[in-house]
Description:
38% of the residues lie in helices and 13% in strands.
Amino acid sequence: MRGPIILFCLFSLHLNAQQNRVFDRYGAITRGDTSQRRLYLIFTGHEYAEGGGLLCRTLKKEKVPGAFFFTGDFCRRYPRLVRKLKRRGFYVGPHSDKHLLYNDWAVRDSLLVSRDAFLADIRQNLATLSGLGIPQGEARWFIPPYEWYNRAIVEWCEAEGLRLFNFTPGTLSNADYTTDGSPNYRSSAEIYQSIVRYESTHPNGLNGFFLLSHIGAGPGRKDKFYKHIRPLIRELKARGYGFGQME
């Protein structure tokens, strides 16, 4: 009876992890297992990649996994970097091919793409990743462009075998793309403090958190947040956190 008992225990652990995940009203996963003191470092890329080398070195030196999600345009522009991240053992997944806006900013249920257009775009993204050594079976997690979607997009992804997820709200980590002088600009110091403040003030801290930032911000931003990833990692390690791998 030992085998069935072990299998039952493993299934129970998996089920509990699923139950502790957080979903939004559209069906997207927005947080991992909130019972575990573990978070996920998520990086997206479409136009810029100037932080790629530093992030790769930092994560390897700190022995921390990272998950990178790239558009097809990014992959065609920076194929050597994509291959390098894959070779170093990081998760690499899709972020759409052309960084399309799927639905209206003001009326979220109003789609701006047809299902056929959505599928053609995401399949091209997956085909480009596959050409760089990342087969579709290893690229099942998907974060949408602009991190903007509705229930129809989530359902289309599920039918395609993709699991749509989004960053966990509550910090300014995703504001690291904002450019100097823009009304929505947030400095790296503000972003950093928003993360440690959230960790200190919320009941579950950063448990299961999907912490999103960008692999590059371009020439319009001098204060690059990816340069602060190493001290952030060390700060969170000191607070007892581990870092999870997307699987």
